[in-house]
Amino acid sequence: MPATDLKPWLKSTQEQVDAALRSFLPRENAAPKTIHKAMRYSIFAGGKRLRPVLCLAAAEACGGDVSEALAPACAVEVMHTYSLVHDDLPCMDDDDLRRGRPTSHKVFGEGMAVLTGDALLTEAFAILARTPATKRYSVGDYVREFAETGGSRKLIGGQVLDLEGEGKQLNKAQLIRIHEAKTAALLTCSVRLGAMTANSTPRKLEALTEFGYNLGLAFQVIDDILDVTQTTEMLGKTAGKDEAVDKSTYPAILGLDKSRKEAARLTRKALKSLEVFGKKGSRLEQIARYLLEREY
Ligand code: GRG
């Protein structure tokens, strides 16, 4: 599949996901209006929809009907958005901007932003529960997979390690533990849920687990690199200067050059686990290559 196919496919898939999100989420004028407005404000703030795209591409790789994977694709995006809303709170990262717009707590106030995150996480489960069961996987299997990803051993656990590591110089192993939990876990869950809707064999599910893990780590390394290169670009400095480098990032620990090599190595590992899918895995392959080359 030529790489030029990816952009139009990404655009139409993102539109399909947005339309599904609009229909699954409570309407903006449903009472009480403020919370529904706040939920939609963060969901429709211009995210890349990477997790839903991965979920749908994984269903395709396993020979499934992509429409059956729309509910989990939306559920992972809604869980992701909840984590961003809470991560931006004054008691966490205290960020003013997200997806290029003022953060939820800046627009709606801190209390409402806490509730917005809570409501998004809860609605994510309601959306997930719409997923049709298959011969191998029940709705209970989807729910367990999803709950474990959002729980204290993955997303929340990663945030705990992040909070505890604040201001400290972390080593590479500690950094990987945070990124496994904060980033790789939800990417892995996205591809696994997509595969489960396609009644994936255990072997293919395992291959996608490997893929999601390595892609997730690669994505985070690339994100860290972009943070440094874009910040230095913005400040008109030479990329790699120490003052632009946060202590607990890959570039801070490995340097920019080694971080780029690490991202390429992890992407190669991810691509290797797609071999079992033959041509059907080419969409996932394109996405992995695209992420490695992305500039935003
Ligand atoms: C439960 C508060 C709480 C946190 C859990 C996932 C997480 C831990 C926090 C979210 C913040 C964060 C920086 C996560 C790392 C993963 C990452 C690079 C997120 C950004 O994902 P993109 O680039 O964002 O896909 P868009 O906006 O495109 O969806």
From TrEMBL:
<dbReference type="InterPro" id="IPR053378">
    <property type="entry name" value="Prenyl_diphosphate_synthase"/>
</dbReference>
<dbReference type="GO" id="GO:0016114">
    <property type="term" value="P:terpenoid biosynthetic process"/>
</dbReference>
<dbReference type="GO" id="GO:0046872">
    <property type="term" value="F:metal ion binding"/>
</dbReference>
<keyword id="KW-0460">Magnesium</keyword>
<comment type="similarity">
    <text>Belongs to the FPP/GGPP synthase family.</text>
</comment>
<dbReference type="InterPro" id="IPR000092">
    <property type="entry name" value="Polyprenyl_synt"/>
</dbReference>
<protein>
    <submittedName>
        <fullName>Polyprenyl synthetase family protein</fullName>
    </submittedName>
</protein>
<dbReference type="InterPro" id="IPR033749">
    <property type="entry name" value="Polyprenyl_synt_CS"/>
</dbReference>
<keyword id="KW-0414">Isoprene biosynthesis</keyword>
<dbReference type="Pfam" id="PF00348">
    <property type="entry name" value="polyprenyl_synt"/>
</dbReference>
<keyword id="KW-0479">Metal-binding</keyword>
<dbReference type="InterPro" id="IPR008949">
    <property type="entry name" value="Isoprenoid_synthase_dom_sf"/>
</dbReference>
<dbReference type="GO" id="GO:0005737">
    <property type="term" value="C:cytoplasm"/>
</dbReference>
<keyword id="KW-0808">Transferase</keyword>
<dbReference type="GO" id="GO:0004659">
    <property type="term" value="F:prenyltransferase activity"/>
</dbReference>
